[in-house]
TrEMBL record:
This is Importin-7/11-like TPR repeats domain-containing protein. It comes from Anopheles gambiae. Keywords: Cytoplasm, Protein transport, Transport. One of its GO terms (biological process) is protein transport. Pfam families: TPR_IPO11. Residues 337-361, 392-409 have a biased composition (Acidic residues).
Amino acid sequence: MELLRIIRETENEELTSVLQKIVCTYSDQLPPIALDICQHLATTFSQVLESDDTGDEKAITAMGLLSTMETLLAVMEEHPQVLAALHPIVLQVIGHVLQQNVFEFYEEAFGLVCDLTSKSISPDMWKLLEIIYELFQKNGAEYFVDMMPALHNYITVDTPAFLSNQNHVIAMYNMCKSVLTSNATEESECSAAKLLEVIILQCKGHIDDFIPSFVELALMRLTREVKTSELRTMCLQVVIAAIYYNPSLLLDILEKIPIPVPDSSITAHFIRQWLHDYDCFLGIHDRKLCIIGLCTLLSLGERKPTVLSELPDKIIPTMLMIFDGLKRAYAARASEGEEEESEDESEDLEDGLSSDEDDVDEMSPYLKNMQKMVQERGAEAGFEISASIQDADSDEDEDDDDDDDDDADEIDETALESYTTPLDDEENPNAVDEYILFQDVMNNLPNTDPTWYTMLTRNLNASERKNLQEVLVLANQKKETKRSKEIEKSGGYQFTQHQIPTTFSFTGQKQQ
């Protein structure tokens, strides 16, 4: 508390860093005084903003205070009652920044909004959404990427409350439309398309009246210049999400959309573009959505688009290549999880052995002098010393950077992958598994539409047939894993080892 008093009196940015370290280090001891700390931080922040000082130090101090608030919220997550008491104080700070149009702190303010909506959304936070929308309409469009995490929370954390007021959906759509029809950056446009996709997947069955506007907005953006494959695929994913939402509704919408396409229908043009760009869908979510969308189209029977009958030889091979990318993405995620666990285990040891960066910097001249002295003494003794004393962190950092680059290439995903939907909830037993869905479609088609099934599989080469078999075997494994988890959750365990088929009939007939 004395430190807080000194910070308020001096507005020293270095002391805010000290306070942040204290909050992290002594989180278990803070609950009794967390409310007082937060109130001090809020008061000091207002004081800093209202001071006559316009220099960089003022901004740094204010950012440090906001950052310390965010840290305080994070460490109090295990104390719900304390956290609930902090929310009104932090909300006042957010309101100060947004309503007073303090642009330089918008990013930090939206970060705090994200924190306050990560577990639940209070009535006051729903009122704040109105303020955010009004701010966006006036001058906040350029901060849309900063808003995105909080907007995602408003849709996904309490979906019934989001749907309870149609204006919530309208506000989200209007913001996305403003971004996708203006001269916004493609990063903002990708976020806007992603937000439309999230709404469609999160609100399945509840927003039929909005689907036409969402789909038309995404397709209209594709009629203008698109510089990156990420934006193109994100717009395509809005339509693919609508296929999963309701394929019949989507096909009716596509027939009515007034977008001229030379020598083709909008439906045919979209599907051809989708299959052509299959390798632009990265990460797990995007590929998974592709598979689910194509499986949905394959199962439509007589209602399926005519263009599919013109591309039977391309559909299954394309899906197999997407599955191959999925397999690698899942393996990369698993590997990354194991590395994080290993890093967590070694952090305590490293913390005990390593010194601060400042100490290392101070030691560097000493190490160089030591090396020079050793080499000189060696020369006097008649032998040459070629070994050198180096700052170990420098080479390790370079190696770490290289490793990070390799990991980034291997994981093969975008930042938008973090905006999850019901499709990404692997803990939900009712979630759609793309492998199992594909297997069900391939098992059902020989009975429901044998001619269509034959068209899809007749020209597969030996390699494609082998890959298809591997996908179907993996689907069986996933089924057994899912079944075992369900049994375990119900209080029992499954010990029976079921034999996984190693052959698959491409004719739909049982093999003798």
